[in-house]
């Protein structure tokens, strides 16, 4: 009978990280970065490039309050018929 009371304590180390992950994922889905790119939260954790874009966005996010607008993955034509990509552009 005493073992039944200890059972929830065994799941606690698994439950806390899961709660944190769900919280971070929901918070992420409210960001402009997610709304524009639709990159899932899991890809931000796995892909270095997407993670870097998101970290830059987070650093510049405060400019949205004063009217700043973000563009992500903008392709700019070059003179030789090629393109160059700008990952994060703040206007």
Question: Count of helical segments?
Answer: 4
Strand order of the largest sheet: 1-2
Backbone structural class: alpha+beta
Provide the low-confidence segments as ranges: none
Number of separate strands: 2
Overall geometric form: elongated
Radius of gyration: 20 Å
Could you give a short account of the major beta sheet? Answer: 2 strands, antiparallel
SS strand fraction: 15-25%
**Helix content range:** 55-70%
* Overall pLDDT level: 90
Termini gap: 63 Å
Output the helix-strand order. Answer: HHHHEE
Description of the structure:
The chain is α+β, with helices and mostly antiparallel strands and 91 residues long. The chain has four helices and two strands.
Which descriptors apply to this entry?
91 residues; two-stranded antiparallel sheet; 4 helices
How is this fold's topology laid out?
Blueprint: H1 2-29, H2 32-37, H3 41-46, H4 48-60, E1 70-77, E2 83-90
Antiparallel strand pairs: 1-2
Brief sketch in words of this structure:
The protein has 91 residues and is of the alpha+beta class. The protein contains four helices and two strands.
């Amino acid at each position: 009978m005493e073992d039944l009371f200890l059972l929830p304590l065994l799941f606690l180390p698994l439950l806390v990280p899961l709660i944190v992950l769900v919280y971070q994922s929901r918070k992420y889905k409210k960001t402009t970065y997610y709304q524009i790119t639709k990159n899932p939260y899991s890809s931000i954790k796995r892909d270095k490039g997407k993670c870097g874009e998101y970290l830059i966005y987070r650093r510049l996010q405060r400019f949205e309050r004063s009217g700043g607008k973000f563009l992500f993955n903008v392709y700019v034509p070059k003179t030789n018929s090629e393109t160059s990509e700008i990952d994060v552009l703040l206007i």
